[in-house]
Specification:
The chain is of the alpha/beta class. Among the domains are: about 80 residues, Immunoglobulins (Immunoglobulin-like); about 70 residues, Golgi alpha-mannosidase II (Immunoglobulin-like, Sandwich), CATH 2.60.40.1180. Helices cover about 25% and strands about 20% of the residues. The protein contains 14 helices and 29 strands. It has an eight-stranded parallel barrel. The chain is elongated, with a radius of gyration of 25 Å.
């Protein structure tokens, strides 16, 4: 810790403040400043002064114990005693991912309190716990997508050691850990990066603020900042993979795209550590280049979220057609998503008013993450209502069956497995009044076009909005919640036992449907999933004359006959054809 290094190419003078003492730094090549501080040790607080202005937290601060505007604190990563020396994460192809928000996963909302609930995940059958962003963001509560100190685990969650204890505890239980990171923008509150250098682009803009400078002057150092951040999580915190938020908002016209460089360097680190590491992208481009191997002209990202699969499920199951759901709603869309990942693969999108996407030809379903709910699809609703507030238990079971028997890597959003009654709302904790008011007013305006009145949209700044979003663990083992939880466990066990269900070859999937009668049949080898979303019973032919074996059914009255099955409304049955 004896040397401090800072990139500040536009500064004329830079001082390091270490434990209250100001120390001038020395200018070096390409905008870097250095100084030796032999007495510096873990736990010391420090900050920087640029041209006499400060104190400013370190852009690479490892810990912000007093929040985004406070001084940084030194951390010795080598001091933590890990117990996972022999740990190796399971491959993504066999993964069941569970997305969780540390602040609402438990009443205490900390890394340490989450440890007490890990056994629930292992009993459910989860293999990968995916944490929503945990970097330092404004205030005590928030989603984390407005983080500004990208190297510092949030102080209210438990800081660096708290995160390490959680990861270590996950590994001890056989759970891999994925971390959601945001490399497309920073939040506005506490964002000092622009004071240090050209971190933001003058050529591109995005919905959430200034785009990151990945291809302009100074972009080499900016790219290094973000890639070093990714490598830090994987190396120093033993994270097993990263979920890259909204990569469609990463603009880069360089010959080597930032995502390709990132994937390449993560691969090098994986070889060095002797541990499998993964990158999963969120992208609405429907561009298979994101997940194609670099050798085939792609970026080499391991997998990406399958938004089209979600949209197809949600629109068909709920009947909603607002916003991007305008492009969906038919059972044919579900069938197409299952067989090709992208519904919009070069065809015309009414919502976008243009042709969209490209076929995912030749790609495995294991390149995509499939889900019925996630933080965005719940939290970006006006009242944060989950599918459990919109659908019957039978429809919830049917949606779960399509997720768990599909060709994609399945993802479960916290509480989905028992139909949690708590909403997941959008919440923030900005201390600056003008910004707080802007967030509050912006949230209301966002939903005015959909007919919502301002008083109907929960105030993101209100503490109650956050508290309402916390999971109620008591309900998980009572009534229909317990029945749904048992259904999810059965589905995951079935997926583990049936090789057809872990086969990523989408071209082997057979799908049939009746849009009028509202039934869907999906066949994967010897296993067939049948669903009735209609208001009347449906008799579905299985495509063969043998007597099938009933594996799972959402309704006890379901009993398959020779080559067919009769389904009551809002039901699902999974059968197996005799060998």
């Amino acid at each position: 810790m004896s040397q401090f290094l800072l990139w500040a190419p536009n500064a004329k003078t830079v001082d390091l403040e270490l434990s209250g003492t100001r120390i001038p730094m020395v200018a070096g090549a390409r905008g870097y400043w250095r100084v030796d501080a032999p007495t510096a040790k873990a736990g010391d607080d420090y900050a920087f002064f640029l041209d006499g202005q400060g104190p400013l937290p370190d852009p690479r601060s490892p810990y912000q114990p007093l929040g985004v505007h406070g001084r940084s604190r030194l951390v010795d990563h080598a001091a933590f005693r890990w117990s996972d020396r022999r740990w190796q994460p399971p491959p993504l192809s066999s993964a069941v991912i569970y997305e969780l928000h540390v602040g609402t996963f438990t009443p205490e909302g900390t890394f340490d309190s989450a440890i007490a609930r890990l056994d629930h995940l292992t009993e459910l059958g989860v293999t990968h716990a995916e944490l929503m962003p945990v970097v330092e963001f404004p205030g005590q509560r928030g989603w984390g997508y407005d983080g500004v100190d990208l190297y510092a685990p949030h102080h209210a969650y438990g800081g660096p050691d708290g995160l390490k204890r959680l990861v270590d505890a996950c590994h001890a239980r056989g759970l891999a850990v994925l971390l959601d990171v945001v490399y497309n923008h920073l939040g506005p509150d506490g964002n000092y990066l622009g004071r240090f250098g050209p971190y933001f682009s003058r050529s591109h803009s995005i919905t959430w603020g200034e785009a990151i400078n990945f291809d302009g002057p100074g972009s080499e150092q900016v790219r290094r900042f973000f890639i070093d951040n990714a490598l830090m999580w994987l190396r120093d915190y033993h994270i097993d993979g990263l979920r890259l938020d909204a990569v469609h908002a990463i603009f880069d016209i360089s010959a080597t795209h930032f995502l390709e460089q990132l994937a390449s360097e993560v691969e090098v680190l994986s070889a060095k550590l002797g541990r499998h590491l993964a990158l999963i992208a969120e992208s609405d481009l429907n561009d298979p280049r994101v997940v194609r191997p670099r050798e085939n002209g792609g970026y080499g990202i391991n997998a990406q979220w399958s938004d089209d699969f979600h949209h197809a499920l949600h629109a068909a199951f709920t009947g909603e057609r607002e916003g991007y759901y305008q492009d969906f709603g038919l059972l044919a869309h579900i069938a197409k998503a299952l067989k090709g990942a992208f519904v919009y693969d070069g065809c015309y999108s009414e919502h976008r008013g243009r042709f969209h996407g490209r076929p995912a030809t030749g790609l495995s379903g294991h390149r995509f993450v499939g889900f019925f709910q996630n933080h965005d699809q719940v939290g970006n609703r006006a009242q944060g209502d989950r599918a459990s507030a919109l659908l019957t238990p039978g429809r919830l079971k049917a949606a779960a069956a399509l997720v768990m028997t599909g060709p994609f890597i399945p993802l479960i959003f916290q509480g989905e497995e028992w139909g949690a009654s708590s909403p997941f709302l959008f919440f923030t904790d900005h201390s600056e009044p003008t910004l707080a008011a802007a967030v509050r007013e912006g949230r209301c305006r966002e939903f005015e076009t959909f007919g919502w009145q301002a008083e109907e949209v929960p105030d993101p700044q209100a503490e109650d909005t956050f508290l309402r979003s916390q999971l109620d663990w008591k309900e998980a083992h009572s009534g229909w919640h317990a029945e749904l939880l048992a259904w999810w466990k059965d589905l995951i066990r079935l997926r583990r036992c049936a090789s057809e269900l872990t086969d990523g070859r989408m071209d082997r999937i057979e799908a049939a449907f009746d849009e009028d009668a509202k039934w869907l049949r999906v066949t994967r080898g010897s296993i067939t999933v049948t669903i009735n979303l209609g208001s009347r019973p449906a008799r579905v032919a299985l495509g063969y004359t043998d007597q099938p074996t009933l594996l799972l059914a959402s309704d006890r009255s379901i009993a398959p006959g020779n080559g067919e099955i009769e389904l009551p409304p809002d039901s699902v049955a999974i059968v197996s054809r005799p060998a």
